[in-house]
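Lecture 7 notes. Example A: sequence first, then its structure tokens.
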Amino acid sequence: MKAYKVSYHNYWGDMGKIIFADTPGKAKYQAIGSDGFDDAEFTDLGCERAEYADNHENDLQLDFDLLMIDNGWIFGLEDSRELVNKDSRNMVIKCGGVDKLLTAFEDNEVSYDYENDIFKPAEEDK
């Protein structure tokens, strides 16, 4: 199925997600009301093709996370400080996905090295 990057600027900043749909309009309608798009209206949303994600709707979450990272996506916590990007790829794999890495950070199992802008195992801080 075709993949679309649906984007929205809200009070948290710029949001984006990949939606699988037949048309851009259907992708935008699917995004409305979803996480990060709670207050969005159809006309507030941007939508562009994300051909690199076509036919990946059934991927395992880790594989899909890596696909997104490899195509320039950046993820962060709600305060937008800690960023998951290509430099964090090995930690994403080690933790089993972006959400699991961010959970490990929140649970102090992984730390963030602000000097080098990278996640690392918490035991390296000791």
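Example B, a different protein, same format:
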Amino acid sequence: MQQRFAPEKTVLAVSIAALFGTMAPAQAQDTTAADGNAATVVVTGTRVANRTALDTASPVDIISADTLKATGSTELNQALSVALPSLNFPRPALTDGTDTIRPATLRGMAPDQSLVLVNSKRRHASSLVNLNGSIGRGSAAVDLNTIPSAIVKNIEVLRDGAAAQYGSDAISGVVNVRLRTDRDGGEGTFTFGERKTEYDLWNDVAPAGATWSGPNSRKRTDGQTKTASVWKGLPWGETGFVTIAAEYKDQQHTERSGYDMRQQYAKVNGAFDPRELTINRFNAWYGDPEMQQKTVFVNAGNTLASGVKVYGWSSYQLRDAESAGYFRLPQDARNVPSIYPDGFLPIIAPTVEDFSAAAGASWTMGDWDLDTSLVYGKNRMDYSIEHTLNASIGPTSKTQFDAGGFSYNQLVYNLTGVRKFDVKGLASPLNLAIGTEARREGYEMHAGEPDSYRSGGRILANGTPAAPGAQVFPGFRPSNNVSASRTAIGVFADIEANVTDAFLASAAVRGEHYNDYGSSLAGKLSGRYDFGKNFALRGSVQNGFRAPSLQQQYFTSTSTNFINGIPYEITTFKPNDPVAVALGAKELKAEKSTNFSLGAVMRLAPFSLTIDAYRINMRDRIVLSENLTSTAVRNYITAQGFAGVGGGRFFINGVNTRTEGVDVVASLPWNAGAAGRFDFTLAGNFNHTDVTRVPTTAQLAALNPAPVLFDRVNVLTLEKGQPKNKVTASMNWKLAQWGLTARATRYGEVLAPGTTAAFDYELSAKTIVDLEARFAATPKLTLALGADNVFDKYSETLPPALNTTGNTPFSNYTPFGNNGRYVYARASYAF
């Protein structure tokens, strides 16, 4: 259907025009006015006190608590992706555990190539390693959604490599969550929202002779979400604080399946079963999972009589989720009709527990400002598989299984000293920071109950064995049990000073030693030259690294596949497993990067503009190989003495990439007097990645035919699986007790790659508009109504060739999700 009017594009155009159309009168105002970023002191990317966001040598974004709050979503990852064009948060579905713990990316890099800090201390990663075909495959990333937005003071995002300053993972940037430090006051907030949407369906072709047909569109009201949160500041002595935040979230699932045109039942005397006309053909949960989540977070600090400042925080979250796999047809060989006569939709129901605790102190010793801390974090994920069966057991099979799970923990000790030196010839004191960090990490996997993975020996009517293990997610086996740990010790130093009044320079170096793979050394040089108070150039050059995660080194799982009636074990091997080694795997080593950036800062108070270009060259990226299950691979493995092994996959170094892009941020606060206060922001990220090398092994290259270790789908996912550009225009308005936020985000083109070029599918650019209106009913009570994706935009509907089951009408590569319009109401009460 031809679209004659695109209101969301009009909103984007009006927002941009409003921003630039108001620049001239704004420049004539008081030049002492500054936007929020310009006046806010940052602690990320610099160890110099009182450095503001627009005075740094590297780009730093500051996202306030109010900005995070003015969205319909209470997820921190989602709120950040709306506020930052350089950060993307795709929302894939039908991806097992990734439905529950979804990763975010910065500057188009992998989710584990950006570092997350809480109060400038390293946050622990999740235990989940993403294995399915979605953005972030092979990564184990920090789950920002374990942090409730109620405890957040602001978030600083350093859009620059910083491995020399912070260590492993800080290749694409650093996200630093700064916690509230209130000793009084508080606020309670209740938010309710739901999806009210309509989406188009591709009219699939039914089997020959069928009398059923599907609709062309579908209306849905679902995804009801209730979130109750509260924070309270309490005094601790004369100067200290204890800030407590708690949050409860209850989210119903969304369902965006297509109409399943497949024949569901076996024919009866050559004719279609009459039940074909009555069975529900919207038979999938394709969308957001069902979730109940409870979180508590405490942050505390005080200054003792001796002048020593003590601080600490702790958090706990319990998340129960439910998502689904693909529908098993009634006549599917993986079904047992006596248990599910109309087929079944298997449910993956993980329970995630997340805990963290930190304690530290800072004090002055002579000219040194010292800080020491100890931070612990643990994430555990256990799988329950429901509404399913083990087809190999037959009619006596259970329908719910404990499938096992895994956990990851991290203990970090830091000691840092900072002092200033007066150096002759420099325009400012030389700031020196030195320190050490010791880190211990642990990773464990535990098996599920035997029925979740074993074969019961049932033989189907055609003489082939039935599939063993719980359908949709076979449990982990005792042979998959893992208990591994490692230690890392690092030392670092960085210096920063104004060489002249106009020229700021800094340098950093960091060395780390890991007991499992060796050492890494990173360095960084940064500079900034202010040509005047209105214009500056800044840039940096550095190398970085990311140590292989324990999840990548030790995750393993096994399932039994019957090939021509013969059982074979298909395994995700550890890289040092003898079978993987026989296929060419090696012990993982660190990923390495070389980063270059060059940017400009313009300030014509109150207007500010930053433009930062970057290039990130990555070597030896760690990726998960393809499934190596060809006949040639099986024969080779057997010849090496591994009988019964049908192939598998493993993590391997060897992908090189080059990522280039530009970040643009323009900000304009405008006091319009009787018309209120406006804050305009226009921000964009333009990004492109090329894969310049893929991994090979001599062992696999010698086979005929030679299997591909990293195929075109994964190559194109890195190159084109995220939007080539993302532009956001937003406006905040406040007048007396009224407030309004309007935001338009344009997501550029994305490619959903296919196994061949014929199956590639380009998702065109889309503009998503969000609106929120606020009213302060009393000085303490504020009410808000809003809608995310006001105009109910979806990506293109996939054709039948790419959606053969009807279960997945949209691509998981859609950068803004596939759930449609979300309307919500929020009430906040300050106390």
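Note on Example B: The first strand starts at residue 60 and ends at 64. DSSP finds eleven helices and 33 strands in the chain.
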